[in-house]
Amino acid sequence: MTDAPAVIATKTRVRWPLSLIVGASLTAVVLATALLALAWTPYDVEAVDIAAKLTAPSAAHPFGTDHFGRDVLSMIMAGAQNSLVVAFVAVGIGVVIGTPLGLAAAARGGWIDELVMRGNDLIFAFPALLLAVMITAVMGPGAINAIIAIGVFNIPVFTRVARGAAQGLWTREYVLAARTAGKSKALISVQHILPNLMSLLVVQAAIQFAVGIVAEAGLSYVGLGAQPPAPSWGRMLAEAQTMIGFAPWLAIMPGLAIFVTVLGLSLTGDGLRDLFDPRVRRER
């Protein structure tokens, strides 16, 4: 009597990339800080206390105070809201406008494709921050104009990503079958092409989110971003540059906030790319 062959059931588990775990954790901390600031900050971010100006980090003020006696920790917490909102909406503009343009260019080809791509080249002819400075200089400083300026640069980024990936998908068998069934190019783009681009768009959005944080800080640094009394990491750096010799915490703290946020988003984007890309994904 022979024993029946044992069937060993194996369960594959996705190995989460370390970069995704670290990046998502850092990003979660920043998001939690911004949400907490909606309801509570250690001090009123607009409260001026001249008697406590330029106080070094202490138990009462863990990140110190600025030249008006305002609590730096409270300002960084409130500034996180501004930076995240500007970057999020600007990336949203790029996704909502750029993705349909890329899908249309890939689906129609010809003069539509040429028109869309030449428009992209025109925008890409200017560095991102320089283009944002030009737009806000013309339209005036402010958070809304900063969103528009950063969003304009995001449009061609998502257009190129969507177009490049969609062109490869148009040769797949399921797309050819849909065309044979009589579906229009627009319907195929929505039903078959776009769902297969979502992972790529999510990865690109995370990367552009980090770029948006830096761009918003840069605009605020030169006075074209959010205006006082709204706290801004970039403006905090600009105000600290003349006092860095005797009050270095004024530059170190907002600089660290920008660094941690950008690092977290960049690592998240890299981790999502590794997770979604079958060529680098590892399972066990």
UniProtKB/TrEMBL annotation:
Membrane topology value: Multi-pass membrane protein
CDD domains: TM_PBP2
Keyword Protein biosynthesis in annotation: no
Family matches, as InterPro entries: BP-dependent_transpt_permease, MetI-like, MetI-like_sf
A biological process from GO: transmembrane transport
PROSITE patterns the UniProt entry points to: ABC_TM1 (PS50928)
Subcellular location: Cell membrane
Domain ABC transmembrane type-1: 80-269
Entry's Gene Ontology cellular component terms: plasma membrane
Record's keyword terms, sorted: Cell membrane, Membrane, Transmembrane, Transmembrane helix, Transport
Gene3D superfamilies to which the protein is assigned, alphabetical: MetI-like
Coarse class of the protein's main subcellular location: membrane
Bilayer-spanning residue ranges: 20-40, 84-107, 119-137, 193-215, 246-267
Family, similarity comment: Belongs to the binding-protein-dependent transport system permease family.
Name of protein: Peptide ABC transporter permease
Organism expressing this protein natively: Brevundimonas naejangsanensis
